[in-house]
Amino acid sequence: MGKKINPFLHRLGIIRDWKSKWFNINQYREYLRKDIEVREYLKEKLKKAAIEDIIIERSSNSIVINIHSARPGIVIGRGGTGVEELKQDIAKKINEKTELKVNIIEIKNSELSANLVAQSIAEQIEKRLPFRRVLKQAIEKTMQNKKAKGIKVAIAGRLNGAEMARTEWLSEGKIPLQTMRADIDFAKYVARTTYGAIGIKVWINKGEIFEEREN
């Protein structure tokens, strides 16, 4: 089962937390639709800001959106104008009479984020760099961090403009997909090239998480 399901979903509620933190039976569909629209808008608007994750928290009178970015300066803008513009656009999409807060959280170790590694690989492939060199450099950069226990990268499509699509993958270290306490970060991304779409998948093992027991 570990190889047939998203590693994040497989560990949800065990060592992973939900990305939308709220509960409302009566307005569940409406809130879910708005969350999806906000995430899609932010990912499109902040393409160059290296967005790792977007966490949305709702309460009875406020909405808090936490944007995790490796380039927070691009999101914030000069004098905070970028954040104010985002708040206005998000408020129009949500259309609710509640207080809206947008927090920008900086990601310091981008090489440990599967999402950011996948985005970096996609950017280089779109620039027509040889895919094997790109994958090897991404793996080496991640494994230089002591917290990384393993990484696997899979890439599929018309690689280097070949007529027939195929799948290639490289890995280093351990990726225990069925160990529930293993902190596996997973991401999918698509590189748009002149030859068509190339799919990228990245798995990063950050070690094991154990529950803290009281003495």
Structural notes for this entry:
The model has no long low-confidence stretch (mean pLDDT 91). It contains six helices and eight strands. It is globular, with a radius of gyration of 19 Å. By secondary structure, the chain is α/β, with parallel strands linked by helices. It has helices at 7-10, 28-45, 72-76, 81-94, 114-126, 131-143; strands at 20-21, 51-58, 62-69, 99-106, 150-157, 166-173, 182-193, 196-208. Helix 2 runs antiparallel to helix 4 (81-94) and helix 5 packs antiparallel against helix 6. Helix content is 31%, strand content 31%. The longest helix is centred in the first third of the chain and has 18 residues, at 28-45.
What characteristics describe this protein?
four-stranded antiparallel β-sheet, alpha/beta
In short:
The chain has 215 residues and is α/β, with parallel strands linked by helices. Helices cover 31% and strands 31% of the residues. The strands form 2 sheets. The protein has a 4-stranded mixed beta sheet with strand order 1-2-3-4. A 4-stranded antiparallel beta sheet has the order 6-5-8-7, with helices on one face.
**Low-confidence residue ranges:** none
Distance between the termini: 35 Å
Measured on Cα atoms, how large is the radius of gyration? 19 Å
Shape, principal axes of CA atoms:
globular
